[in-house]
Amino acid sequence: MATTPVQETLMPSAAGFLTLMHAHGLITQPFTIPGVTRNHAVMVSLTEIHPDGQPFVGDAVMKVCNVAAHDGGVDVRAEISWDSDLPVRVSFLVS
User: Fold this and answer.
1) Residues 31-49 pLDDT 10s
2) Which helix (H) or strand (E) holds 46?
3) Are 42 and 81 in contact (CB under 8 A)?
4) Taking the CB of residue 11, how many other CB atoms lie within 10 A of it?
5) pTM
6) DSSP-derived 3-state class of residue 54
7) Which of 39, 20, 36, 24 is nearest to 73 (CA)?
8) Integer angstrom CA distances of residue 40 from 22, 33, 58, 65
9) Which residues pair with 62 in a beta bridge?
10) I want to staple 32 with a disulfide (CB 3.0 to 4.6 A). Which of 41, 49, 73, 85 is the partner?
C-alpha cells in the first residue's frame, strides 16, 4: 500500500496593528504599515468605538469588502452602514 508523504507546515510569525478612523458609507482607504509587502497575508476587522474609548458592537453594520497588501502598506475597501461618520478601530493581522 502506498503512503502519501506528509508536508510539514511552518507557522509564520504574525504581527498585529491597530489604527482609528472616522468614516461611513463605502470607503477605500490606504494604510501605511512599514515592512508589509505584497507577499504578506493580511486580515482586517472593524470595530465601532464607544465615546468612552471601548470597542463595542453597535447598531451600524460594518463589512470588510477587499484587502490588498502592497509594499509598505495595505488598501482596505469597507462599508460602514450609517448616515454619519463613526469612530472605528481598524485591526490588522499580518503574517
Assistant:
1) 999 999 999 999 999 999 9
2) strand 42-49
3) no
4) 6
5) 0.83
6) coil
7) 36
8) 26, 11, 31, 18
9) 80
10) 73
